Amino acid sequence: MQEVYITEEKVRQIKAQKATFNSLQTQFNCKIDIVDKNTIRINADNAFNEYILKDVIFAFGRGFDLATARKLIEDGEFFSIIDLGSIFKKKKQIYRIKARIIGKNGKTKLYIESVSGVKISIYGDTVAFIGTENGIHEAETAVNLIIKGKNHKTAYKHMEATHRKNNIQEKLNSIMK
């Protein structure tokens, strides 16, 4: 049994998308129950299925749409989260950093997503990522620099350098096989 704590709003969305969650139950041979206004319980005979569904529901709870959260079912797709509330104590600081990560008209977030190939959700006091291991590393490089107060140009340069390095490494790995 796994339990996932998510916002009341997201629990309401799960109730509204009952058919989709029923298909997950069927696909993974498990039972997904709403325990209370913030808790989802997953029961399955297979612990791996519980673990995967816990990640899918947690990602949904951190602001991803269900289609994006379902990517975690695929091999090579991962989930990562940065808790801004543990870095900054004041809500005003968190708001400012979230605004910097999103950028004017969402351009910063979109650029980071396009270079890294990951999906980013900025929800509550968190920044969450779904993508490949290398892609998440690239996106986190940029986001962490923005969190540290670096300008966007510096964050982009470091992310792009990490992206190039990852591409070279992937090419070398494919040659070595």
Detailed description of the structure:
- It is a single chain.
- This protein has 2 domains: 2-73, K Homology domain, type 1 (Ribosomal Protein S8, Chain: A, domain 1), CATH 3.30.1370; 78-176, 2-Layer Sandwich (Ribosomal Protein S8, Chain: A, domain 1).
- Helices cover 59% and strands 19% of the residues.
- It has 9 helices and 6 strands, in the order βααββααβαααββαα.
- Strands 1-3-2 form a 3-stranded antiparallel sheet, with helices on one face.
- α7 (107-116) packs antiparallel against α8 and α7 (107-116) packs parallel to α9 (152-176).
- The protein is globular, with a radius of gyration of 18 Å.
Keywords, please?
Ribosomal Protein S8, Chain: A, domain 1, alpha+beta, 177 residues, globular, 9 helices, 3-stranded antiparallel beta sheet, 19% strand
SSE arrangement:
Layout: E1 2-5, H1 8-16, H2 18-28, E2 30-36, E3 39-44, H3 47-61, H4 66-69, E4 78-83, H5 84-87, H6 91-102, H7 107-116, E5 119-123, E6 126-131, H8 133-147, H9 152-176
Antiparallel strand pairs: 1-3, 2-3, 4-6, 5-6
